[in-house]
Specification:
The protein has about 70 residues and is of the alpha+beta class. It has 3 helices and 3 strands, in the order βαβαβα. About 40% of the residues lie in helices and about 20% in strands.
């Protein structure tokens, strides 16, 4: 699995997932359940991961949408 983006913004994460869903790129969000431990303060970024074979296509999709940065 390759990390495309790290973000603490849940709204942006939903956008990124929708972009990948639209192009049928499989993805998984790592560290999503850490929010239960952090009390919702958003200190830990969630990682949007794709299989290695989809990393190039996933990066291109996010770059086209100008969403290929960590925050």
């Amino acid at each position: 699995m390759i990390c495309l983006v790290k973000t603490t913004d849940p709204v942006r994460l939903t956008l990124l997932q929708a972009l990948l869903d639209d192009t049928a790129i499989p993805h998984v969000v790592f560290d999503q359940h850490i929010s239960a431990l952090e009390a919702g303060i958003g200190a830990f970024p969630r990682r949007l991961m794709v299989p290695e074979g989809y990393a190039y296509a996933g990066r291109n999709i996010l770059a086209d949408a100008e969403q290929d940065y960590d925050d």
